[in-house]
Each structure stands twice: as structure tokens, then as C-alpha cells.
Amino acid sequence: MLRYTLKRLGSTLPTLIAVLTVIFVIIRIAPGDPAIAILGDNASQQAIDALRERLGLNEPLLEQYWYFLSDALTGNLGNSLVSGRSVLHEVLEVLPHTLDLTVAAIVIGVILGIPVGILAAVYRNGPVDYVARIGSLLGLSFPSFYTAILLILAFAIHFPWFPVISNANLSDPGDRLYNLVLPALSLGLIMVAYVARTTRASMIEALGADYIRTARAKGAPAFVIVARHGFRNAIIPIITIIGLYLGLLIGNSVIIEIVFNRPGLGKLIVGALEQRDYTMLQGLMVIYAFFIVLTNLVTDLAYGMSDPRVKYQ
Amino acid sequence: MRKFLTQAGTGLALALCVSFGSFDALRAETAVNVGLKAKDATALDPHLSTKSGDKPIFALLFNGLVRFKPGSMSPAQLEPDLAESWEVSPDGKVWTFKLRKGVKFHHGYGELTADDVVYSLTRAGDPKRSSVSSDYNQFEKVEAVDPHTVRITLKTPVPSLLGLVANYHGGNIVSKKAAEELGEGFKQKPVGTGPFMFKDYKAKQGITLAANPDYFRGKPKIDKLEFKFVPSDSSRELAFKKGELDIFTGKREEKWVQRIGKDGGLTVDVFEPGELRTLHLNTKVKPLDDIRVRKAIAHALNRDDFIKLVGDSVTRKSWSPVPNGYLGHSGDLPKYEYDLDKAKALMKEAGHENGFKLNAIITKRSALLRPMQVIQAQLKKIGIDLELDVVEHSAFHSQIRKDLSPMVLYGAARFPVADTYLTQFYHGKSRVGTPTAVTNFNHCDVADAEIDAARKEPDANKQKELWAAAQRKLMENVCSVPLFEQLQVWARRNSVDYGYPLEGALSLGPLFTEASAKK
Questions:
Q1: Min distance B233 CA to chain A CA atoms (Å)
Q2: Model-level pTM?
Q3: Which residue of B lies nearest to A34 if distances are taken between CA atoms?
Q4: b/e for B60-89, b at 16 or more Cβ within 10 A?
Q5: Which residues contact residue A154 at a Cβ distance below 8 angstroms, ignoring those fewer than 6 apart?
Q6: pLDDT for A13
Q7: Which residues contact A228 (CB under 8 A, 6 or more apart)?
Q8: Which one of B37, B189, B397, B400 makes the best mutation probe of the A interface by having the most chain A beta carbons within 10 Å?
Q9: Domains of chain A
Q10: Which of A41, A118, B27, B77 is the most exposed place for a label (fewest CB within 10 A)?
Q11: For the segment B381-404, what is each residue's pLDDT rounded down to a tens digit?
């Protein structure tokens, strides 16, 4: 398994270089100037030119590319053009917020989504199933910013229980959790919908299999049939969907971050794009690509843990 | 017995209070939470950043030699700040400032001396360290006569010199020692002499300022200011309703002002400066090089529609290239009233009876995009098919500075003296695409002589006449079409008292002084 893991990690290197090259070229083709983003609309041309010089934006493109690539491969992501601080430092600063949100959303999705999905599959076409199906359809169709504003209106304004601006103090676990509730719910409810639908479909397929009929025939209790024989065999697609969304959530929670004014990776990416912060964006892409690779790997390893028939080569 | 115990208890409590010095010790910390419409502060250096989100913070951290009276942005009301008094030589070229004694920089950076002023003003004039260096190109030298006297020698007289040493952009005085010691780090840990000092910065979250106990006008009544970056309009409003913010940047729309006003318990301040939205027309490219076409455009634009778009309590119509209220603004200029027939006739005369197609670049920010869409609709009526290329805000600024858009809608507030606006937007030297470029998008140079002469004119009345003449020439040539001015809007809880009537603030946000309080 260790060899497999290393092999997988090694094979991502070419992908990473390709991603970096594409990003490097695209962001420089796009119009815009980080110097104006830093100095403001009112700055004189002289000041803008001086800053461009200092930021190294006047060097030949190939030279910039070479420096960037060799630095990135040695783990040096450079400094943000706009704030002047190390990219890694800026990322590490917001990463806990992003991980909190992502993990909490997944946990909510799993804890609520899987039981709902199983119940819907077991009582297929019954009232439980209908409620679950309509509920998850609603969850999928509501845009997350809308759910977020509804939650704020209900649980921050009408019942003033939670904050509107969730700027958590990271060193205080209680405060961190308190600030996480509404954002995690907004994102988690969507996860519930996805997980419930996948679980339901996957369970229906598993419950229709021959070995379930055999288990029923030999008189196994209903719970054992559903949990051990059914769910165990239905779990692979559920892990796939969770893994897929774990990767996506890390970057896509930007809307939730904006509405709740939370720091996070999504907001960092959008901000870097708007300000044409080349180095920041490049660094973020490296980290993001790495995350995707990592979640894929973890997902693959989880297959093996949940299903002994899966072998690594 | 019980009575005795109560009395004894009260007496003991009183005695304890007195022994701790005063009741002040028991007073809870007063903090004001401010919601800023900004994503982050990237360079907290008053000479470097000209971003509107940073300006309200600079106004609290720094002082100039003179300052705008709190709540006002009138250059006629400048009052002593770090300088106690000043003298001008008869030829207007040498200004001598006597500094206030005993002013202390924040964080133990020592007492303010003439060296700090010399350093700051020299720094403000250095393009490598300042974004506003061109404002200071008439400075020949700045020198310290003694530790509390500064002498500024000018190449040519600058009648509005006080504006350049006021608490705005380059006029902010920084600590020499701190700036040299911290270098690039100064913009992350600014050191000034203002009523509040920098305490903490959390990337993309906010900035905390603490009251400066040594402030020379007295310790502020507010102990702490928490600035929070909340770029989303609705989030700021919700957070205010919840009580997480005490004051915040509002939406500059009448509908919003009226709606939030209904909630009660709060005051909406609408104040100067009005940001002038001007449509600049490149007078050197076809077909806009034909004055008849430019006049047709001017007649086709209906200011009433723009006012309707935003609402009349937060906007006003404009007919002059220099905003209302600026020293030297002239109202007596040729007006191109809305007249479609006249506009169409002019188009026909210019040989464009069937109209033409034109591309323009515009930012995706609604404050400029929406008026530009109105312009697009209005020009369609005289056959001009305006195609808009909508781009990111920073891309918009870099592209218009590369002279890529023949029509530029620009919104700006500048130092409130006609010279700044005229020089930056209408002087031949400021044309975009040249090495000395600032923001002259219309490529006009018809009023250079008047603008230059006014800058050197020692007689205030003659200076105003020259400025008026310059504005007249610019409008006769239709270098641009000034459309409307949009005022600043901030909301505050009634418990927050700035300590002065807020009528104007060049810092684009309310200034907290030593007298500001929260009940």
C-alpha cells in the first residue's frame, strides 16, 4: 500500500507542472495590472511603473516562468505581489477556517444524508421516501447563498443566537464552533442532499441483489440485512461522491465565505484573481491541485478499507 | 445592624474606588465596530495607497502640518495640526512652519521633530516610495531649520500649498525612525501621531486601532476601533442589524437610504466629497475628433436619467469639469442641455446620419457599469452603437491607462482645489499613453496655458479667473461630458457621536477624534 501511495503521488508531478504552466500563461494573457490593484486608481503612472519594476513584472516572461517553476518545485511558493507576505503563510492562515467549514459540512452531510438515504431506499415509494426525495431536491435546487441568507435571518437576526460576521478566534475552540454553525449548516444541507440521493440509489441497487434475497430466505434480521449485507456493498459510490465533493468544497465554499465574511481559500482565490496577484494565484493552484490529488488518494485508499475485494497494484 | 452593614459596605466600596484613583478605572472599555466596504488592506502606508478602503484608517493614524476641520473638506477651513503657525515669503516661494512641541509618535518612536517632516515630505515626492509624487514636483527642497522649524522652498509659487501639507495622502507625516527601521514592513505596521494607533491586522478580516494615550489633543474617549472588512453590502447591513457593527459604509443609492432609515435608532450621513462621474471623449481619434460629434453626444445625454437611477438625495447634476465645492469650481460654463433633435442634426452635419459603431471598456463594478449602460441606451437614440467590453476593475484601470478605450466613464474625488482635477484630467502632460501620464483620457491640451498660469498666480482672485477660463475652454471643446456627482453614504447607530457635524470628509469615511464618543 505504501508503494502504491508513493507511485500515485509521483505520477501527479507531470499533471502539476502542466496545471502550473496553463495557469502561468492564462493569468498573464488576461488584462489587468497588480500594480494598480495595490496602489489604487489614483496612483501616478510613475509610481505604477516603479512598483512593476520592483515586483519583477518587467522581466522577460520566460525568465519569470523559469523562476516560478524552479521555485515551486523546490517548495518555495514566493510572496504575494499584493500583500508582500509569503503565499504559504497566507494560505496557512486561512486554511484552518476552510478545513473547519469543509469537514463540518461533510460531517453534517454524512450524519444526516446516509440514514435518510438508507431509510428512503428501505421504504421505497413510501411517505419517508417521498419526503426524502422532495427534501433533497429542494436542497439541490436552492443556491447556497440563498440558504445562507435565510439561515442568517432566522438564527442571527430573528433569534439572535449566532453571529452574522463569523470571524472566529482560532485559539478558542468554543468560539470557533460557535462561528461555524451557520456556515457549516448552509453548506452541509447541500451535502445532505447529495449524499442522501447517492445513498438511496446505491442502496436500492444493493438491496435488489441476489445475496439479499438469500439472506432474507435464511431468516437474517432486517437490520443485519440492511446494515451488513446492503450498506456494506453500497458504500463505494457514497465514498466516491464524498471524496469528489471534499475536493470541490475546499475551493467552492467561496460564496459561503463571502456571505458570512469568513476567511478561507475560496475567497483567497477570488481575491487573487481580481487583483491579478499572479504569485498568489499560482501558489494557490499548486496547493489546490495537491489537495485534489490527496483527496483522490484518500478516497482510493478508503475503497480498500471498506471493501476487501479492492486490491492495490 | 443591617443598615449599618449596608452603609459600611457602600463606604468601603467608595473608598476602594477612590483608592484606585478614579471611577475611570471601573469604566468598561468603549469599542466601536466599523464595517468597511473593502476586501483587505494591503498597504497601510499613506504615501503609497490611494485605495478608498484605506483612507478612513490613514485619517486616524496620521496628522499633517495642517488639517481639514473635522467634518469638513473645505480648503478654506484648514487649521493648524502638527504646525502651530506658518509664514510665507513675499514671493510665495518659501514657507516656514513652526512645529508643535511635545508631540509623540505611537509605539515609543519618540518625539516629532523637523527631521520627520523633512523625511515625510521628501518621501511623498519620491515616485519610488509614493503614489502621489507628481503633486510635489514644485518642491525644490524641504529642510529643517531647527528641531521645531521646517522650511519648504518651491520652484514656483504654489498658492494652494497648504493642501499639500494637510492630512491627506502625501501630507501625512510618518515617523522617520519607524519608516527607516521597518522598511517594507512599515506598510504592515504604520507609525504616526494621530488619535488612534495601529494595534493589530488580521488578513482579510480586519484592523484594530487603539486610542493613543499621548495624543496631543487629549486621549480619545473611544478606547478601541475595530475595522472589519465586509465587502458584501447585504452582510454589512445584516451585521449592523444584529448589533455587530456600530457604523458602516452604506450603499450610495436613495432607495437604500430610505429603506434603512425606516428601521429607527440610526442616522444615515450623506456627505461630501461628491465623486464626479465624467464621460471623457478621446478628442484625437475618429470619429470623436469631430467636435460636432462630441457636441451631439453631449446633447444626447440626459442627466435626469442618471439622477433617477441613483436618487436625488445622494446625487446632483454636474455641468463643470471641476466638481462642485472645489476651490476654483466654475458654474458659469456652456451647458449642453438634453436635446435629441439638436443632437441628431449635429450627427447629420458631421456626416454620421446613420450613426456609427464604437467600442468602450468599462469595469464590472456597478457604480460605473450601470451609468455606462444608461449612456449606451441614450447614445443609441442618435444612432451611436456603443459596444461595452466589461472587465475586472483593475483590468479596466490598466486598459484605459493604455489608451485602449475612446470613451472612458471615470468617477473620482480629488484634493478639492481646481488645479488637481484640471492637471490630472485635462493637462496635455497628463495624457494617457505618454511617460508623464496621469488620467487625461480625452487628450485635450487646450487649457494648458490657463492651468499652468493659475498654478503660479499669487493673487487668489486672478487665479480663480484663470481656472474659470480653463473650464470654459474645456467645455467649449467638449473634451468631456460631466454628468453627475455621487455623495458618500455611511450609517451609524445613534449612540455613536462623532463630536462634530459630518458634512464632508476627504478620507471618504467618518473621522474619529478625541471628542468622538459612544454612549
A1: 9
A2: 0.81
A3: B394
A4: bbbbbbbbbebbbbebeebeebbbeebebe
A5: none
A6: 76
A7: none
A8: B397
A9: 93-257 (1.10.3720.10)
A10: B27
A11: 999 999 999 998 888 988 898 899
Taking the C-alpha atoms of residue A58 and residue A54, their distance in angstroms, rounded to an integer, is 9
Contact A268 B204 (CB under 8 A): yes
Residue B6 has pLDDT above 60, yes or no: no
User: Please, are residues B60 and A49 in contact by the beta-carbon 8 Å criterion?
Assistant: no
| Terminal-residue alpha carbon distance, chain B | 39
3-state class of B318 per DSSP?
Answer: coil
* Residue at grid coordinates 488518494: A297
Residue with cell 491579478: A276
Chains A and B form CB pairs within 8 A to the count of 148
Out of A220-234, B53-67, B349-363, least confident range: A220-234
Say if the Cβ atoms of B391 and A32 lie within 8 Å.
yes
Check whether B472 has a pLDDT greater than 60.
yes
- Can you name the residues that pair with B489 across neighbouring β-strands? B270
Say whether residue A43 is in contact with chain B using an 8 A CB cutoff. yes
Residue B381 vs residue A66, higher pLDDT? B381
C-alpha distance from residue B32 to each of A11, A186, B59, B243, B268 (Å): 54, 29, 16, 11, 17
Neighbours of A26 (CB within 10 A): 10
- B221 in contact with A at a CB cutoff of 8 Å? no
Shortest CB distance from A36 goes to which of B228, B391, B397?
A: B397
Burial annotation A194-230 (CB, 10 A radius, 16+ → b, else e): bbbbbbbbbbbebbeeeebeebeeeeeeeeebbeebb
pLDDT at residue B164 greater than cutoff 60: yes
When pLDDT is cut at 50, 70 and 90, the band that residue B51 belongs to is: confident
ipTM value for the complex: 0.74
Question: 175-204 in B: which are within 8 Å (CB) of A?
Answer: 184, 187-188, 202-204
Q: What cell does B219 get? A: 486621549
B128: nearest CB among A41, A50, A156: A50
